[in-house]
Write a structure and sequence with these properties.
This protein has nine helices and 14 strands. By secondary structure, it is an alpha/beta fold. Helix 4 packs antiparallel against helix 9 (about 290-310) and helix 6 (about 150-165) crosses helix 9. GO terms for molecular function: nucleotide binding.
Amino acid sequence: MGRHHARVLAGLDGVELVGVVDPMGDKNGWAQGAPVLSTVEELLELGVDYAVVACPTALHEEVGLQLAGAGVAALIEKPVADSVEGARKLVEAFESRGLVAGVGHIERCNPALRSLRSRLEAGELGEIFQVVTRRQGPFPHRIADVGVVKDLATHDIDLTGWVTGQTYTSIAAHTIHKSGRPHEDMVSAVGRLSGGAMVSHLVNWLSPLKERFTSVTGERGTFIADTLTADLTFYSNAAVTTEWEALQAFRGVSEGDMIRYAIPKREPLLVEHELFRDAVLGEPADICTLRQGMRTVEVAAAVLESAATGRSMELKAEEFAGHGV
């Protein structure tokens, strides 16, 4: 992801890309002409205002704590840390110093999900009954240090809480290992949110079909978001009465109108960086905070524990404060 961050930052209004840290150098020229440094200490010597942490997940805690200690704001790629304890240390380090920090949960900036969230907030769906996500495709060779839960499922955990404004209260999961790596390649999880809605997540690296699917079903119908194409569609419930006495007691639904929304489609990574830039400048900006990122890591840890123990895990319900910083 580092090369994509560098590309966006190099052209971002109000921001100057002054340095890139990569101990292996920049043989592909992805640094956009910025100096390529070997250590975080060298970057801090440049007097940077904020930094983007796009190193392997296992190093997020170490690098993030260095930045916090130097009083530098940070946008940390997801997941915020490799463990709940690491995430908690980062939250404490940045919050105690009053520093702006965020997590790169990029799906929050997907046009389809941003539109979906605003429509749910406006009450267009009514009560939310269920959230279903499917995120599957071939193995990404860029990933070596975590499994599919921490790398991919964290997207779905975060976006579910963000679009609904709710948090997880329980989760149960199964995983399998088929690629010969020490980490899981597939997870299937079901759970419940603080507002009573059910959730279902299917995530894998074992499918030749690439799919990014999110559906939210409620009392007025179903929203379906395809985050690969950034399309959002609404299937409404038809208002149909029945004279069949045996069915009158059953409150069923039938297919009504289908609407595919026209949505402005800006690059999610650019939107993410615009929001974080604004947050650093002290302007209201709907970024994913470190505390929200920590909550996602907690749920991911519960997913892995459930898969390992065969038990459903209970989680403390908390208000999902996802409306600005």
